[in-house]
């Protein structure tokens, strides 16, 4: 046979239906033992054993860990790098999967899990899942879930502390009108950054002004609209804290369009420290969250679960750190009077 054997080839050679082959391969009920044995023999004869599904049927393991993401964007890309690095010397392969959110914008994880678990993967890492109350035949770990801590193991960064430190830094430079380009309202870590922003203002004795907050949703176009609203005001902020680096970069681009110098007229701080942050034309001051470490820790946790171990602790919050670069300075008014 000059091509790779298919399930239909196995079915014909074994004298059964493709559905029966599928049941036998996946270890499902309803197939007699002697039929399963015959299917296995044909799998070996035809070379179908090289397929992931066939090998999983015999060993009840695929040797693959799945990472489910809503989108392939900078945050999830860095998470994937961390998972890959942690698994590089292990016996496990990595499968990155992003299903269509148009069919299930909320609860996309359930649809992805139903497609992958039990046949293609031995364990799952879900990145920023909308729901964590999901069931699967394999262990699950969630990174930065929308709802925060859950019954299943979760890993996240200290979004509240990172945002608080960022805004406290701007206040320490002398800024009193500090704008905020917020992230996605449905994401718990985004809410934590909002809370950190407000706490830092209160700590500095700066009244909270809702007019200085605009939602960017972690997306470029939404952040562009938010930046234009903030910077186009008659009394614009002298500094902006953005809930992620992509939004911060967009703020700098809009400032340039409006003839504002960064950091001369406007200071900007982001959150994440994606690779683009340090490579930008004006290197971005930002809050570094350990995205690679988040991925590595999730990989170690899911492998432990797959080996029958119970991770301790099951809920991890990793520290963040302010990285000072070239987009922040004291406000112009202070520099002029100095």
From TrEMBL:
GO molecular function: DNA-binding transcription factor activity; transcription cis-regulatory region binding
Species whose genome carries this gene: Leifsonia sp. NPDC080035
SMART domains: HTH_LACI
Any coiled-coil regions, as ranges: none
The entry's keywords: DNA-binding, Transcription, Transcription regulation
Pfam families referenced in this protein's UniProt entry, alphabetically: LacI, Peripla_BP_3
Classification lineage: Bacteria, Bacillati, Actinomycetota, Actinomycetes, Micrococcales
Residue stretches making up the HTH lacI-type domain: 5-59
CDD domains per UniProt: HTH_LacI (cd01392), PBP1_LacI_sugar_binding-like (cd06267)
Keyword DNA-binding: yes
Gene3D superfamilies found in the cross-reference section: 3.40.50.2300, lambda repressor-like DNA-binding domains
Domain of life: Bacteria
Protein name: LacI family DNA-binding transcriptional regulator
């Amino acid at each position: 046979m000059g091509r790779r054997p298919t399930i239909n080839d196995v079915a014909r050679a074994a004298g059964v239906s493709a559905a029966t082959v599928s049941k036998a391969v996946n270890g499902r009920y309803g197939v007699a033992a002697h039929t399963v044995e015959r299917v296995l023999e044909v799998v070996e004869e035809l070379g179908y054993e090289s397929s992931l599904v066939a090998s999983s049927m015999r060993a009840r393991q695929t040797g693959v860990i799945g990472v489910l993401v809503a989108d392939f964007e900078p945050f999830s890309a860095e998470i994937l790098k961390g998972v890959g690095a942690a698994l590089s010397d292990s016996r496990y392969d990595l499968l990155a999967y992003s299903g269509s959110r148009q069919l299930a914008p909320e609860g996309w994880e359930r649809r992805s899990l139903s497609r992958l678990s039990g046949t293609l993967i031995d364990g799952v890492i879900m990145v920023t899942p909308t729901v964590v109350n999901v069931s699967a035949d394999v262990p699950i770990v969630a990174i930065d879930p929308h709802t925060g801590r859950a019954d299943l193991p979760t890993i996240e960064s200290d979004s509240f502390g990172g945002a608080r430190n960022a805004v406290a830094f701007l206040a320490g430079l002398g800024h009193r009108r500090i704008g905020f380009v917020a992230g996605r309202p449905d994401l718990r870590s985004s809410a934590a950054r909002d809370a950190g922003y407000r706490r830092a203002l209160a700590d500095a004795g700066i009244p909270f002004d809702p007019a200085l907050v605009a939602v960017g949703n972690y997306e470029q176009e939404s952040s562009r609209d938010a930046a234009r609203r903030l910077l186009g005001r008659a009394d614009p902020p002298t500094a902006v804290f953005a809930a992620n680096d992509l939004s911060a970069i967009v703020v700098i681009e809009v400032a340039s369009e409006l003839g504002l110098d960064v950091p001369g007229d406007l200071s900007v701080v982001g959150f994440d420290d994606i690779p683009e942050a340090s490579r930008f034309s004006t290197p971005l001051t930002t809050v570094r969250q350990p995205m690679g470490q988040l991925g590595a820790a999730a990989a170690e946790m899911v492998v432990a679960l797959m080996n029958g171990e119970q991770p301790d602790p099951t809920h991890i919050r990793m520290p963040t750190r302010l990285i000072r670069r070239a987009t922040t300075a004291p406000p112009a008014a202070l520099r002029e009077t100095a």
